[in-house]
Specification:
81 residues, mainly alpha, 2 helices, No apical meristem-associated C-terminal domain-containing protein, coiled coil
């Protein structure tokens, strides 16, 4: 009878160890996924800022092109557009 009790205790200990390992693995995966999510958010933020800067630069270049036009040298139709 004591051999069966010892085996039962060993199995219980082993299951507890496995449960602890699984819990640690789950916590590590959750932490990793949270870190990946934060990195992806940062990547999106950087891409958005880069796009906004590129758009602002294009608008600035268009404004400079328009300001550089000599109104005395263009036709009246071109002045209106």
């Amino acid at each position: 009878m004591s051999i069966m009790q010892e085996e039962s205790v060993k199995k219980t200990d082993r299951f507890q160890q496995l449960a602890c390992i699984d819990e640690k693995r789950y916590d590590e995966m959750r932490s990793h996924n949270a870190a990946v999510f934060l990195l992806e958010q940062e990547k999106v933020r950087i891409m958005r800022e880069k796009h906004e800067r590129k758009q602002a630069e294009a608008e600035k270049q268009e404004d400079e092109r328009i300001l550089a036009i000599d109104l005395e040298a263009v036709t009246p139709a071109q002045r209106n557009s």
